[in-house]
Amino acid sequence: MKKLFATALVIICISRTHAQTLTGIWYSADSTRRYEIKETETGRFAAVIKSSDRAADSIGYEVMKNISFNVKKKRYEGVIYAVSDGQPAFVKIRFAEKNANTLIITIDRLLLMDVSLNWMRMVN
To answer: With contact defined as beta carbons under 8 Å apart, do 17 and 10 qualify?
Structure first.
């Protein structure tokens, strides 16, 4: 029982530590979109478009849902939605090794190679 409690406590601490760094305002690599990642419930996150220079984008559109930290793989995982047609895809999210202000977002694609995107944290 003590081991189970200790394991649960470690997982909660890891989730909380990562949650503090994931939330915030992020820019797309070309700086045409600004996203906000918020915690929707304990240990789960979502990303919405806060502003965009692209005419077809809808402010407030939820581009990522059900993001949670995978302890075994040491990365965030969830679902990303295409802005153009709403098609979902599995997404893996990690921080760049040398820069904690950069997210590397890898989107799983069928039959094609995975697609990677970079988001940069908005720093005041």
So the answer is: no
Say how far apart CA 48 and CA 46 lie, in whole Å. Answer: 7
Q: What is the DSSP string of 23-80?
A: -EEEEETTSSEEEEEEEEETTEEEEEEEEES-TT--TT-EEEEEEEEETTTTEEEEEE
Rg (CA), the chain: 15
> Does residue 93 contact residue 104 with C-beta atoms inside 8 Å?
yes
In this structure, are residues 73 and 58 in contact, taking their beta carbons and an 8 Å threshold? no
**Distance (Å, rounded) from C-alpha 108 to C-alpha 47?**
18
Could you give all domains of the chain from N- to C-terminal order, each with its CATH number? 2-121 (2.40.128.520)
pTM for the structure as a whole: 0.78
The more confidently predicted of residues 26 and 112 is: 26
Closest CA to 114 of 94, 86, 91: 91
Q: What are the pLDDT digits (tens) for 17-53?
A: 443 479 999 999 999 999 999 999 999 999 999 999 9
